[in-house]
Design brief:
about 0% helix; 1 helix; 2 domains; seven-stranded antiparallel β-sheet; Neuraminidase
Length: about 475
């Protein structure tokens, strides 16, 4: 089983093994030639919608669309959205309104990214195509706020512009910042302000990581916060339930051009930004999503120890990596990419590009149930006792936070709901502290992952989640 070296918040190196369970990959596009640049979103009814670029030759590309009503098990026959017979249609993005209307924006032209920006919308099953920007502006991205206002971002002469679609009409085109301040990824907070991560081109020919906010009610782009990180690239941003930003980015590790670079993570606690947390050393593409419990689900294309490219999943809680697995792997370098996560209830899904043969690539989809067998039963937390360190390597302490009179039964449950450790403590009305060493279990293979520590007697039952890393 493949292993990856990670660095925790306190920069303690650990090696962890995959333990989450992913479904078998489903081919979404299933077209001849090459598919690339997939984008995915989920509508209010739980239907997944996916768009991508279909590469026919260097000067001819089309935009295709497919959907799944059973959360990724089966997909509709790909639909040609761009309907072009020549030219290059590329870089599609998709957003969905609260009422289920689809909006897909892409670029189409003859000179790479310079071309006309089109939007294809679907209202009540009827597709409609319209031009939304001329060839002067290049398509940069789209975002929809919580009032279903669609923001279209464009670029021209090293400057970012935007225009707004309210569902009926488009606004004029407005500038954001001065030249060389680039908006890379945007998300709307609960007040409909736009939070973004981007890059600023500096006088020493470098790119510095930046964060900024657009105040929708006053139509004001606030001054950006420049994080003291140079040589940054491809930042992506997400917000937790408190509207606090989390940013992942890559940092160029050498002056010469290289596809793969170290990946870092920073977060804002309301007062200060954290120090950068190194996630991996050789990343290419990445994206993430945050659930209602502030769990971060991160997907990264990276090189493993055998010099192959893998799509790797990590779950991060409070700055600690608590789960990690390989979603899909490849025997080739620079071949897996463009991960797009989606979340519905307790099901986490991911679309991505994977090659087959010497040149062809298809869009694939995998999913995972986020609720394990054990967590369905053991889900409560208590402050009646503490366990530390957490994470641990399988050796840790349990300590009561109050005096306990009755004998206490202690159990450790794995993610499958199996009891792997059990003992009884006589407390006699005193505080207790007890060492548990799961590494000494003779008949149990201790895997890295989530475990449940349970202490109970006739008067109490308390449960703690424990993370075990680097157990072998």
């Amino acid at each position: 089983m493949k292993k990856y070296t990670i660095i925790l918040l306190l920069l303690v190196a650990s090696t962890i093994t995959a333990f989450s369970q992913w479904s078998s990959p489903v081919n979404v596009s299933n077209l001849p030639e090459r598919d690339m640049h997939a984008a995915t979103s989920v509508d209010p009814n739980g239907v997944i919608h996916c768009v991508w670029t279909h590469f026919i030759n260097t000067g001819f590309r089309k935009i295709y669309y497919s959907k799944s009503s059973d959360f990724g098990d089966t997909w509709s026959v790909p639909l040609d959205l761009s309907q072009n017979n020549d030219s290059t249609a590329s870089s599609p993005q998709i957003v969905i309104s609260s009422t289920g209307y689809l909006f897909i924006v892409y670029n189409q032209g003859y000179m790479g990214y310079s071309g006309i920006t089109y939007m294809v919308s679907n209202k009540n099953g009827i597709w409609k195509k319209q031009k939304v920007a001329n060839f002067i502006y290049g398509f940069r991205g789209i975002i929809m706020d919580h009032d279903d206002n669609l923001y279209l971002f464009l670029h021209h002469s090293s400057k970012i512009y935007y225009k707004i679609f309210d569902g009926q009409t488009w606004s004029n085109i407005y500038p954001t910042y001065d030249q060389y301040t680039f908006i890379n990824d945007v998300i709307a907070d609960q007040q409909n302000n736009l939070n973004f991560a981007g890059l600023k081109y500096t006088a020493d020919l470098n790119y510095r990581l930046i964060y900024g906010i657009y105040q929708a009610d006053s139509n004001l782009w606030q001054p950006v916060y420049e994080y003291a990180i140079d040589s940054a690239e491809t930042p992506v941003i997400g917000l937790d339930q408190d509207d606090l930003p989390h940013i992942f980015y890559r940092k160029k590790s050498q002056i010469n051009y290289n596809w793969f670079h170290p990946q870092y993570y920073i977060r804002f606690d309301g007062n200060n930004w954290s120090e950068p947390m190194l996630i991996c050393h050789n990343s290419y593409d990445h994206d993430f999503i945050v659930n209602t419990q502030n769990h971060i689900y991160l997907f990264t294309t990276e090189i493993d120890e055998d010099e192959n490219t893998d799509l790797v999943y990590r779950q991060i809680q409070n700055g600690i990596i608590t789960d990690m697995s390989v979603v899909n792997g490849s025997n080739e370098n620079f071949s897996l990419g463009h991960p797009e996560p989606v979340l519905q209830g307790n099901t986490l899904g991911i679309t991505y590009i994977k090659p087959f043969g010497s040149f062809d690539c298809d869009v694939f989809y995998n999913s995972m149930d986020l609720i394990s067998k054990a967590e369905n039963t053991y889900s409560s937390e208590s402050q009646l006792f503490s366990s530390y360190p957490n994470p641990s390597d399988g050796e840790f302490f349990i300590e009561s936070n109050s005096k306990i009179v009755e004998p206490v039964e202690i159990k450790v449950i794995n993610s499958e709901g199996e009891v792997i450790y059990e003992t009884f403590l006589s407390c006699d009305g005193e505080f207790f502290r007890y060492r548990i060493n799961l590494k000494q279990l003779k008949h149990t293979y201790l895997k890295d992952g989530m475990y449940y520590l349970i202490a109970e007697n006739e008067k109490l039952k308390t449960i703690h989640k424990c993370i075990i890393l680097n157990s072998n």
